[in-house]
TrEMBL record:
Residue range from the parent sequence: 1 to 239 of 397
One Gene Ontology MF term: ATP binding
Keywords, alphabetical: ATP-binding, Cell membrane, Membrane, Nucleotide-binding, Translocase, Transport
Protein name: ABC transporter ATP-binding protein
Domain ABC transporter, residue spans: 4-235
Highest taxon of the lineage: Bacteria
Keyword DNA-binding: no
């Protein structure tokens, strides 16, 4: 469980691009927050700074009150799920999910228990002995999530995890992600450019445009009280 605070966080790339400009949001312990906005608005860069995959140019990132700016990704205890599944094709579902636990040198029994628990939560129990090549896209994405949840990280970061799936599967996966997040209660930052996903999935939305936060709040609040025309247009509210 984790509280994630971004205080006046800015990312300036070497070429001068300011991808994220003064991002200032406190994400509560257990919250499911959505970063949404058009392509290029700085969503992935924000997520990558939280994960430690990009340096922070200015401002401070704290997890549970501890400054993280200079901590390596592995010391942040955060799991990231990308849109590309990055499963190991030669390993079974069981071995794929178990992989982070093997790295952490857990014993065989503990690994089996955790893998089976994660598989149960993700409806993957019947597929544990299959290889990724014999799974559907949605099942593969659930294996990737299994690998993220199996070591009980403090937080999940997801970067457009459903964008490779067809529309029908996306709707199904939305439901399973939402259910999973609620049952685990793990702080989650979820990136999407899809308004519907943003409106249905999270506790709060952070809507960005060109590196700048436009509005932060529960979906209903952005819909009922958009702060500007961009928010109104993006959310599709009648304002
Ligand atoms: P999003 O995920 O919302 O589509 P990104 O965070 O990937 O947006 O990118 C935000 C902005 O930063 C874009 O203008 C992008 O071109 C720029 N950008 C991303 N990575 C780099 C980089 N390594 N060097 C320079 N500019 C970058
Ligand atoms: Mg992106």
């Amino acid at each position: 469980m984790a509280e994630i605070e971004l205080e006046h966080v800015t990312k300036r790339f070497a070429d001068g691009t300011v991808a994220v400009d003064d991002f200032d949001v406190r994400i509560a312990d257990g919250e499911f927050i959505i970063l949404v906005g058009p392509s290029g608005c700085g969503k992935s860069t924000t997520l990558n700074m939280i994960a430690g995959l990009e340096d922070i140019s200015d401002g401070e990132l704290r997890i549970d009150g501890v400054r993280m700016n200079d901590k390596a990704p592995r010391d942040r205890d955060i799991a990231m799920v990308f849109q590309s599944y990055a499963l190991y094709p030669h390993m079974t579902v069981r071995e794929n999910i178990a992989f982070p636990l093997k790295l952490a040198k857990l014993d065989r029994k503990a690994i089996d228990e955790k893998v089976e628990h994660a598989a149960g939560l993700l409806d993957l129990t019947p597929y544990l002995d299959r290889k990724p090549g014999a799974l559907s896209g949605g099942q593969r994405q659930r294996v990737a999530m299994g690998r993220a949840i199996v070591r009980s990280p403090k937080a999940f970061l997801m970067d457009e995890p459903l964008s490779n799936l067809d529309a029908k599967l996306r709707v199904q996966m939305r439901t399973s992600i939402s259910r999973l997040q609620k049952s685990l209660g793990t702080t989650t930052v979820y990136v999407t450019h899809d308004q519907t996903e943003a409106m249905t999935l999270g506790d709060r939305i952070v809507l960005m445009r060109a590196g700048l936060i436009q509005q932060v709040g529960p979906p209903q609040e952005l819909y009922d009280h958009p702060r500007n025309l961009f928010v109104a247009g993006f959310i599709g509210s009648p304002a």
